[in-house]
């Protein structure tokens, strides 16, 4: 099942799209911790919302309304989501991402863990947060595209409900870049919950673009790595042209590392073949 992905990596025609699950492998908190912090800072009793819908997007929007900006929340996340270099050096997941040498990595994470991992391993890259950064792309140098923003730029952060709704137009400079990058390349999504509406919308738009082109048969195969089997999700994702990959009979906390290890070994094996 990895053959197509391995071949795309060998041709440098594969894109990695990395989500929160990648950062959680080195100890970053879940979104529930962010919700608890916002509630504590705004003196909201979360027990009042039991049984009611309250997601972090709406809560972050309320935070911006009350505080005037997202800046203080961004500063708190930056302080609390910074991982020590020694931890990142030991991270097998981050080591394998660097080793697999994707020419382009998109990430919806705000943290600097991917960039720091590249720095620690002496790998060159260009970080892309806005349209200005796109002009800095250099041939043969990996691109790390901060799709939902970066801690160094408050205005780039996509965290509140309005931010997400505005991105649904799919017309920002990074969206246009993604469409251009993705149309002719294989994409591997890792570290995502398939309940992430923004990512699901992105997958769906990509499928619709190919479906409307009349050349859907020529679309490169793309993949989603899932921690647990879910036949409902699998059927929907496969309808959108995404092949689901899993590590069966593997604890979820070990699954991503095992998968990336197998992928790296398969690439190395292909390199050894004449």
TrEMBL record:
It comes from Microvirga tunisiensis. InterPro entries: DHS-like_NAD/FAD-binding_dom, Uncharacterised_Sir2-like. SUPFAM superfamilies: DHS-like NAD/FAD-binding domain. Pfam families: SIR2_2. This is Sir2 family NAD-dependent protein deacetylase.
